[in-house]
Amino acid sequence: MKFNWNDSWLFTKDNTLNVSDWEAVNLPHTWNAKDGQDGGNDYYRGTCYYAKKLALADVSGAEGVYLEFEGANSSADVYVNGNLAVHHDGGYSTFRANITEYLKEENDILVAVDNAPNDRVYPQMADFTFYGGLYRDVNVICVPKAHFDLDYYGGPGITVTPVVEGANANVEVKGYFTGLAGNENVKYTIKDGDANVAEACVAAADGKADFVIENVHLWNGRKDPFLYTVEAVLVDGEKELDARCVKFGCRYFEIDPERGFILNGEEYPLRGVSRHQDRLGIGNALLPEHHKEDAELIYEVGATTIRLAHYQHNQYFYDLCDEMGFVLWAEIPYISQHMPNGRENTISQMKELVVQNYNHPSIFVWGLSNEISMKGADDPDLIENHHILNDLCHEMDKTRLTTMAIVSMCDMDAEYVQIPDTVSWNHYFGWYGGETHMNGPWMDNFHAKYPDLPVGMSEYGCEALNWHNSNPQQGDYSEEYQAYYHEELIKQLFTRKYIWATHVWNMFDFGADARAEGGEDGQNHKGLMTFDRSYKKDSFYAYKAWLSDEPFVHICGKRYVDRVEDITKVTVYSNLPEVELFVNGKSLGKQTSDVHFFYFDVPNAGETELVAKAGECEDTSKLKKVAEFNNAYRMVETGDVLNWFDITEVPGCFSLNDKMSELIANEQGRNMMVGLMKSASEGQKTMADPTQMLSNPAMIEFMGGFTIKRLLSMVGAMGAKPLTRDQMLAFNTMLNQIKK
Fold it and tell me: At 582, which CATH number?
């Protein structure tokens, strides 16, 4: 028996024994729902406490009682009547506490949850908020003495391994049990809907049964995500002791370095998004309806794949992906900074990821790490750690491949790049320096140098808020630049068949409390949708035009009404081959496009109503001619943030508005920048050493297109202490003394 135990907890941030002062909360819950999203990198990180009473009468008749925690970030101690029942490190996976031996008539349950910084539990440095709390379900599980194993890395106690051979599938089902007396059996039934496909009864001590499903119905991605069911019942004679019901899918695949991803013998391009598990004002304490809405929105955009970054996600979301046909990349939060004391935690988190998610047909690759070489890729301990994780994945799971996401600045010849079965790169040319046109050629160069290693693009994107510009520029945070950027990246990446997977960073804006960018602190705004899921940015429809079969037409720039120019460009997206645009009822003509993007030059006078038609689809928008640019469309940062137009510029000398590439080329300017970065990094766990960073040619190429102001505004996200407005102005005064 398993029942939910989310309601009526008491919570406190203070280590006080007087529970009458504690706050009443229901789970899921996080204490960082607000302060983890408002900027300043000052959200509370420490130990907080949850308490609840469990009556023995609530679990009467059980021979064993477990508390199951589906997510407690990031470390937790579970106490029963003052006794430590379990300690767990890792904030994103299920763990259980066997509390049987501690139970009395009335039982005090106390859970100490800790998201404080340390040097052994991942993640500790990354561009997202580490929300603390019991942010997923807590359950009580009552079991007889003999039951499916609940103690092995939070797993379900049963594995289903289908291997497709020709028209059939060989399916191995294995149950794992504890407390057996020796005479128990396990009955397995494979079902197709209500129909029984195969049955077997084997001794529970062995627990393994082999089946053949003839003329197997394949799980075939979004085209046909068909699922079978295994019902497993542990019995003693005729008495049922324990049971499991597991859905699984039969499929086969390969990742070819020339042809990309191949599913069930057919090329199946993986073009999709990454997803973080938080929301505005809610943090990571999501409800089932939030997960379902996310999956449905990703489905609407037409994605065939999701990278579940940068940690294990909720089991319900994996179930949704099984049912909807997404191809998943699942990974552990081994991210940004390799910690010598964190090896055991990477191993335990990887074991939990594989054991808990082994039966999901939607998962095809296990991710070893993300951008772990921020401080360099030649650390022998880092390299050995990756070999251990890679071997571990192959030992635990013979059916899937390994991969990892590599930071753009990493040398493509680095030893650790060759460890997994496949690789993917995080490139932001066109946003974090460089130009948009550099992305495709970089991939070509890697592919030419390592033609036998499948390569993908695991992150790319740029930020957009409700700012607008008819002449969008890199770094202006406008919706128009984001749309242009993704148009260019789509054309470059989607036309290169050898790229085994592409994942936009990100599907949704997400919490990153260290960020101070774009005029709204505390968030990463690279999403195709806003943090609250209320608005689909124009770039959402650029992907829908390429990926979705649902006919539609979309006029871009709906939030950009007031325009000063006499002729303005209007972009239309559609997955239909022809679009006609009407201006106040008059046709501007029809256009065809083989890239799904249509560009019209529209006369801008007075008030204009636009109507775009494609097939049976129609969309409308409005324009208004104004004499002066509407400053509500221009990013004006407030608070302790510096705007570009507040910066003093001296002719012939440097200022914060100059590009990093120009400053680094000047010895005096470079030394000054190193000194500032070292000062900001003092006492902080930064992602990269400033001297090393500004000496690395790949890093210089990567960030050379930044303005100095923009880079300095991001040092908080890099792990350094955020610079104040006055500090940046003081640095600008120093720059004004250096001649170009």
Answer: 2.60.40.10
Residue 314 has a CB neighbour count (10 Å cut-off) of 23
Query: Which residues, listed in sequence order, are joined to residue 232 by a DSSP beta bridge?
Result: 188, 244
Helix 479-493 to helix 538-547 angle (10° resolution) is 20
Strands 305-308 and 260-263: unpaired
- What contacts 24+ positions apart, CB below 8 Å, involve 191-194? 191/228, 191/229, 191/230, 191/231, 192/217, 192/228
Q: Is residue 96 domain-shared with residue 29, that is, in the same domain?
A: yes
Q: Examine the domain organization and report whether 88 and 215 are in the same domain.
A: no
- Phi first, then psi, for residue 408 (nearest 5°) are -55, -40
Question: How many other CB atoms are there within 10 angstroms of residue 365's CB atom?
Answer: 29
Spatial distance between the Cα atoms of 264 and 275, rounded to a whole number of angstroms? 26
Span 60-83, average pLDDT: 97
As a whole number of angstroms, the distance between CA 724 and CA 639 comes to 10
* Pair 303, 428 in one domain: yes
Residues designated catalytic: 371
Sign of CA dihedral 134, 97, 290, 510: positive
Helices 315-324 and 288-301 cross at an angle (nearest 10°) of 30
CB count in 10 Å sphere of residue 139:
17
Query: Could you tell me if residue 419 is inside a domain?
Result: yes
Q: What is the pLDDT of residues 706-719, one digit of tens each?
A: 788 878 877 776 66
Does residue 298 share a domain with residue 441? Answer: yes
Helix axes 667-681, 725-735, angle to 10 degrees: 160
- SS3 category, 698: helix
Amino acid at 4: N
Question: Residue 375 corresponds to which amino acid?
Answer: K
Domain count, the chain: 5
**Whether 567 and 698 share a structural domain:** no
Residue 460, in any domain of the structure: yes
Range of the domain at 628: 562-632
Burial environment of residue 488 by CB neighbours within 10 A (0 to 12, 13 to 18, 19 or more): middle
- Please indicate whether residue 169 or residue 710 has the higher confidence score (pLDDT): 169
Locate 257 and state its tokens: 């370095």
Asked whether residue 535 is assigned to any structural domain, the reply reads no
Instruction: Give 449's strand partners.
Output: none
**Same domain for 385 and 344:** yes
pTM of this structure = 0.92
pLDDT per position as a tens digit, 421-441? 999 999 999 998 788 999 999
What local confidence, expressed as pLDDT, does residue 123 receive? 98
